[in-house]
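Deliverable D2.4 — example input (structure tokens):
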């Protein structure tokens, strides 16, 4: 992997294109009002491509709540996920999540997974089956 500095990014105007950055940002939220008060929560994340096969996603979630004589707001959780795709369509994922709000603070999840895709089902003609029905892919993923 080649060295890539902040100065390189600043010199490359293509990296600073606002429309490309906006496509990498994801924001979602919801809110409600009940007899106790109003509340809202949301999540924001950013996808940073590292190279053609690697990606880093960084995210955070938070809340805002207000009622009679009380108010609460803050960031509840932060997380990061690294994804690497290989030539055989297998995927390596590593993720780390931490609670940063009130109560239990600290890393609460750390996962590493490696996904290998199943092979596609083969061609079956009706004449090769005793019942005359052509089906495919019924044994996908089964080990014999």
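Example output (designed residues):
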């Amino acid at each position: 992997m080649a060295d890539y500095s902040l100065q390189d990014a600043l010199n490359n105007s293509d990296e600073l294109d606002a429309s490309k950055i906006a496509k990498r940002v994801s924001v979602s939220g919801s809110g409600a009002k009940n007899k106790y008060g109003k509340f809202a929560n949301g999540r924001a994340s950013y996808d940073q491509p590292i190279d053609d096969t690697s990606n880093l996603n960084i995210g955070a979630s938070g809340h805002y709540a207000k009622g009679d004589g009380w108010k609460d707001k803050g960031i509840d959780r932060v997380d990061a996920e690294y994804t690497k795709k290989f030539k055989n369509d297998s995927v390596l994922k590593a993720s780390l999540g931490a609670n940063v709000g009130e109560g239990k603070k600290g890393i609460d999840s750390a996962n590493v997974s490696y996904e290998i895709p199943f092979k596609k089902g083969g061609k079956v003609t009706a004449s090769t089956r005793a019942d005359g029905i052509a089906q495919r892919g019924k044994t996908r993923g089964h080990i014999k």
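Residues 31 and 40 are 4 Å apart (CA to CA).
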